[in-house]
Amino acid sequence: MATPKKPRTLYEKIFADHIVAERDDGTVLLYIDRHLIHEVTSPQAFSGLASRSLPVRQPALQLATSDHNVPTTPRPYPVTPATYLRVPASRLQVQTLERNVRAHNIPYLGLNSRRQGIVHVIGPELGFTLPGTTIVCGDSHTSTHGAFGALAWGVGTSEVEHVLATQTVVVTRWGNMRVEVNGALAEGVSSKDLMMHIIGTIGTAGGTGMVIEFAGPVIRKLSMESRMALCNMSIEAGARAGLIAPDETTFEYVKGRPLAPTGGQWEEVLKYWEQLYSDPGAHFDKTVHIDATAVMPTVTWGTSPEQVVSITGSVPAPEDFEDPVKQESCRQALGYMGLEAGARMTDIAVDKVFIGSCTNARLEDFRIAARILRGKRISPNLKLALAVPGSGAVKRAAEREGIDAIFKQAGFQWREAGCSLCVGLNEDALLPFERCASTSNRNFESRQGTAGRTHLVSPAVAAATAIHGTLADVRLETGLKPQEAPEVIYSSESEEYIESGSEGGNPEVENTDQPSAAPVARSAKISAYSTTVCGSVAIVERSNIDTDAIFPKQFCTTIERKGLGDCLFHNLRYHPDGNPKADFILNQKKHRNASFLLATGPNFGCGSSREHAVWALQDFGFRCIFAPSFADIFYNNAFKNGLLLVKPDAALVARIVLSAGLGKEIQINLADQVVLDESGVKIGGFEIEERRKKELIDGMDEIAVTLATIEDIEEFERDRKAARPWIDESVRDGWSSKLAKEVKGWKHKDAQINSLDW
Ligand SMILES: CC(C)[C@@](O)(CC(=O)O)C(=O)O
Ligand code: SF4
User: Where is this region: Disordered (predicted)?
Assistant: First the structure.
């Protein structure tokens, strides 16, 4: 009798189908079916490839677009980046991408394409995103694509280079987390509110090291667009990826999309996709139960996506939190946001309203907002109400329905597609101290503009807010009676919702005692870490130090990876006039050459995948960062560049703080895993995965290691072609026939989708 198969989670199933090789060091080489590329996180990867004279292994499995830097003002077609992009750095970044995609024959939807848009909006729209596939992008919101039952996650630029060269990435196995949502969402409450409620419940590090599968009756009822908004913000909960098992809603959405399988292959594919669910009895390391009925329109009051409150609530006070770290974060956030504890959310006046971003710039979002805006005018106190569709396709579809007219009549500006005010890399940005209700995903300090203040909201709340000029309860606007639910207090991780699995444990550190791989011939090693490192320690008393704080967005337009030290903590370090802030630690003479940074709060490096944060820390001179915990993408990025990250225990923190307080230096010896005081006396030890330690000490070149076993990839590609031919064929057919025809019919046909000669 055959032994029954161990029940597997959806994540485990997709993962298993993409294993190219399991390495002795516990890592897995995973095949990537789809790679999305944008202009901000790819230039350094392409230069890396060029310096090795390597080709892109699978051009047809890439999809590139320019989205972050592009102006959203009217486009004078045919658009020439040289004149349309007025900011030189942005122009250079877009032109660099265009040069790279041309050189490597990568499908590209640029400014002249009617399908150009935010990378996470166009992937699904085109049918590039398919259930059961693995998808990566140098962008943390790649989690969006998990809405289709695709294993999709954000990677850093080093990994982008690895994917371009090998169509694989090196990963460790992540944990399984299930967020089960029961009850029902009330009217006026969206998946965005639900996700902010979840983040408020589990915290911004609640999903660290985990893939979150969203399940339960509420999820099943959500449209694909709402599922995308939900999965999009999984990264704001710290998760590696968000996942929803595909179902009829998914298949319906995918069917007929230009790059989706067609004909007889569709039936074949469905058979495979219908197996994509977590088996009954599959093990989850952690399960969170959410009662959707308790969710109200939810908004953020602070500078971290976990700092949420329902729209009927008020701004909390530091004393409302038990945890001293949270108290301090609250104090800092209130100061930054210019808010008084106790103020009612609906009394907070805003200067700007933004409906857009990869979270909420899809047709459904604009339909919902239009229903509220119809026949109304925005409040006179608003300086700007901005509607930025996520893609050209969303824009045209909305225009066909007359949605643009409703927005314009209400006083909104109706723009061309792009990331826009989500990150303000183009000209759409907040001025200092301006307050914005934004449907985007990050309320980090200075994210939307230096010293700008962001409140994250749903599209419905954004529309109601635009009308009132203050944050507004959309349910009152639409005549809905707010449900009588007790207010949820998001004071600390609400343990009663969370159930731990029987095995539990930290997935990142599993397999640490595996032997390491034998050294392989290397060509471009990262810096070795073979000797004791000494230096002074700079202490930053903050939690959730996000990569927007470490490397502010205005510098993300660089195509360099060197010389970024001056950008480090720029907004905290310098006044807007460029003068250093005397009280910031790195401006104090003794810390200008600091080698160590100690963050006292958890979740260092959360948020964006920008590897620039690591490059800047290193360029400043930091060799090691101490923090209670790190966000996953940052953790990977750091080690891939040779930056040591250490999670010290409380005793070691105390000793380091003591040394720093006395103005003394410390030393770290990685080989022995010890921290020493200035005179060489041990003040503590630390844990580190064996493989990470070895890589740092020996130096490593991951691409060379993978290329040394290229036969494994070739073999996997042969097997994959036999077992799941649709994965490649659907994109090849789509690009060369359906989309090619469409591009020909398009009057601005100059070079939008590269001529692909497959
Ligand atoms: C590239 C960058 C601006 C980014 O899109 C990257 C990311 O989220 O990983 C962001 O939103 O911070
Ligand atoms: S989070 Fe904002 S900047 Fe990043 S991809 Fe999404 S829309 Fe663009």
Answer: 491-515
